[in-house]
User: Fold ER membrane protein complex subunit 1 from Ogataea haglerorum.
Amino acid sequence: MLFLFFLVLLASGLPADEIFRVDWQTVQIGRPFASVFKDGRIYSLTDQNIYSVLNSSTGEVLYRYQSDAPVKHDSLLAPAWNGLVACGFNHEATSRLVFWTKDGLIEHELDLGSLAGLHNVRDETLLAVQKDGSVLQIDKDYGQSTIAHVGPVQASKLAFFADQLVLVSKSSAGTAYKIFDGQEGSLGCQFEDILVTDEGIVCNKDIYKLESGKLQKYKNSPVAAVAGRTARVVNSQYLVTADENIQIYDLDDPSRLIESHALNSPADMIEADTVDGWVAVFVVSGDDLLLFVGGELVWARDESLAEISDILITDRHEELSVSLGDFEHEKHWSGYIDRVKHNLHLLFKEQHTDTDKHFGFNKTIVVLTRNGNLYGYDSYGHLEWSIKEHGFSRIFKLDNQAYAANEKVYAVQDGKLLETDVNEEQQVLYPPNLDGSYRLLTTAARGYNNTEVASPAVVLASRRVLYKYLNPQTSVGVFYNEDAALLKFVVYNKATNQTYASFEHSTKNPESLKLVFEENFIVFTTSEKNAETSLLGVIELYESLTPDQRSKVPEHQVRTYFLPSQVAAMTVTRTKYNIASKWLIVALRSGEIVAIPRTLANARRPFAVSKKEPEEMLMKYQPVLPVNPKLTLSHYRKLMATSKLVSVPTELESTTLVVGAGTDLFATLVRPSSSFDSMRGDFSKSTLLATIAVLVASILVVRPFVSQKQLKDAWQTRS
Ligand SMILES: *[C@@H]1O[C@H](CO)[C@@H](O)[C@H](O)[C@H]1NC(C)=O
Ligand SMILES: *[C@@H]1O[C@H](CO)[C@@H](O)[C@H](O)[C@H]1NC(C)=O
Ligand SMILES: *[C@@H]1O[C@H](CO)[C@@H](O)[C@H](O)[C@H]1NC(C)=O
Ligand SMILES: *[C@@H]1O[C@H](CO)[C@@H](O)[C@H](O)[C@H]1NC(C)=O
Assistant:
């Protein structure tokens, strides 16, 4: 019976091979505004300030780099020599030219003026046209020389003739051309409509060719008849155009359409390359990235997911394999037998597929993107459904039901919409007014009431207690005074407007404020612009700071710490019964998500530790909160632009699901008090089985001896 009991305890265990299953991320790049398609790779600059490399046969992201400074949408990409890609980043104040290897290493970097054009000249040199009109030639040793001056330029194209180059540029006056070492002039057509081919410069219905140092106009070029705004020439062989259709023509005979493929919406950008003799066309159409080869769609990426504006998580009503209900309904034995069967199955079978169904790990993650699309993921990272083109503006959750709203409100169930008239209860907090020089930034209050607080007091080493201040009406309002650059935290009762305490903190960057309020503690972080660190403040509220005393008005304790990076988002772990310890979960600007135990980020860490009798196991105050690599939840991952973090309980008290969202979506399971209610990953099943076997064997061996001895004893006492 004891052994069976053992098995029952194991039932709530979590086998090692499941731990990293709920541990995934999506990899998004955003919407490209410039791309280069070369040798099976698509290099892009996107609206998420990302430079990325995609594998053109799968659409998989091979490399990503996100610029800290915003990248303007007139930034440029061009292929350079030796397989390098030159990327001209135009930032607000500065510009730089970065040469990347195809594996995502920086080969060289140059600081230049704002760039209007970047042109590869026969894989030998690179021409960088700056907006002020100077044309720089950059050679393979990264030496620079100015080879021409044209007027102020917005954009440029380069045409090649036998041994001469012609630069076509867009300026406020119109479209101009400049023959290097030769004459200049203007062209009577829109810069965007100009198509540069080996034959000449195609413009309106005409084609210009360079003859004896002059541009000569030839009327009614056949290429001009099909060229449009988004036309591209591929490998000097094909002409690709795209509006609602992608059309590929033979450049030598432009009246001959080779293939055509319909799009759902007009293309914003096309790039093409030949792959094994086929034309591969990369199309950006709204948020969709598409790749066509031979007119067939090979892959598609949905980059609306690169801008997640909100997430919410609903349960799927999974329960532990034996629920409390089974016991209440006296199904002890059937429940027990099921449980034992399940456990035996766990013990003897290596590949168990359904065991995690019972711990409430599999939830629905509903994602709202900036463009109003909804997506549903399960906890394991599978995209289950999507709802597009409804333009939702917000999502909310009531009683574990997800709702999405545009002008109407819909219940969202398994990817289906159901119109309802439910409305989100507006959580109205009335912060007490300060004088007019303060503006309200945000308010926070505990999201649950006292019945859900597991420990209402802190027990000290002397067996005395500090009572947590747990009035559920307690809120905090944060105000900002621009002139004094001062944040003011006001702790008050939202029912009576009584103010309990207020705190001031100076910062010049109030937008960086992150605030959480749990149980009896308030945690906030701020970081100054361009600072390497951020400040984390902890405010704890107790009925009284004198042990064993109670009162109706809180007393508080405050400590501030430094974090060695800027904070992008913050939350606190939530478990089912709030018994497990609490961790702060912090997303850093550097791309990691880290956990900080509350015992470190604590407002009662003593400034001096007396050797005699420490009141409790708190470490001496240190101003810097170290980031422990073992508590880096994102492991090796770099998560871009995380702006929201959510922690939701599972059916296991030890375990909480943490989801982060921004450009990427990330989910992992977190166990702040380690797995006290689940089996450790390195639990040795074979040792357990061997122990049982040895015990059973020894019983079998010992039993004859025992009965012999009993028999002998009986004889001896008789005699
Ligand atoms: C792209 O993916 C294909 C198929 O998985 C693979 O064979 C190829 O090596 C990949 N290319 C690059 C550049 O990684
Ligand atoms: C999670 O739940 C969904 C819907 O019930 C199911 O399709 C999916 O397979 C589950 N995932 C796992 C890993 O159990
Ligand atoms: C609290 O103060 C706010 C603003 O000053 C006010 O709108 C609200 O009615 C007050 N609430 C109570 C209960 O007095
Ligand atoms: C606290 O929450 C529980 C469960 O959600 C609810 O039954 C109870 O009425 C709430 N109590 C108060 C005082 O709001």
Q: What stands out?
A: The longest strand covers residues 253-262. The CA atoms of residues 180 and 662 lie 47 Å apart. Residues 449, 451 surround 2-acetamido-2-deoxy-beta-D-glucopyranose (ligand 4) (CB under 6 Å).
